[in-house]
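REVIEWER CHECKLIST
Item 1: Sequence provided? yes
Item 2: Single chain? yes
Item 3: Sequence as submitted:
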Amino acid sequence: MAVVGRARGGWALALCVVLALALQVMGAADYYKTLGLSRGASEDQIKRAYRKLALKYHPDKNSPGDTEASGKFAAIGNAYEVLSNEEKRQIYDQHGEEGVKQHAAQGGGGGRQQQNDMFSQFFGGGFGGGGFGQQEAGAFTAPLFSPS
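Item 4: Structure as written out by the authors:
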């Protein structure tokens, strides 16, 4: 069981690296275009578009080496994260992707940890059953040091 967890963790790390590189190469993204929507899209339209595309490009539905699908899956998650949040969407509409990044850097909340929660909200579970930042049942975490 531990070997499977490590293999999944290694796969997840490799996926994160590929996705980060893909996002850097893509530059400034048009989140509406990513989801196939117009700027006036409703919350329901955003949810439906995200669900449809996330299912299509999810890593479990594509071959492990399909970096194009992995990159699209990450882009879809980023677009949904911004467009589904009223505050972030307003900032994006006014200032673009850079405005959203600055907002997050100033403590505006959100981030990668919410992508797993967001996916779980729709599909009832994490990426392959074990999400980023989740601990295994019964895992023990000890402090780095203990006061004497």
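Item 5: Key structural point noted by reviewer: Residues 2-26 form the longest helix (25 residues).
Item 6: Recommendation: ____
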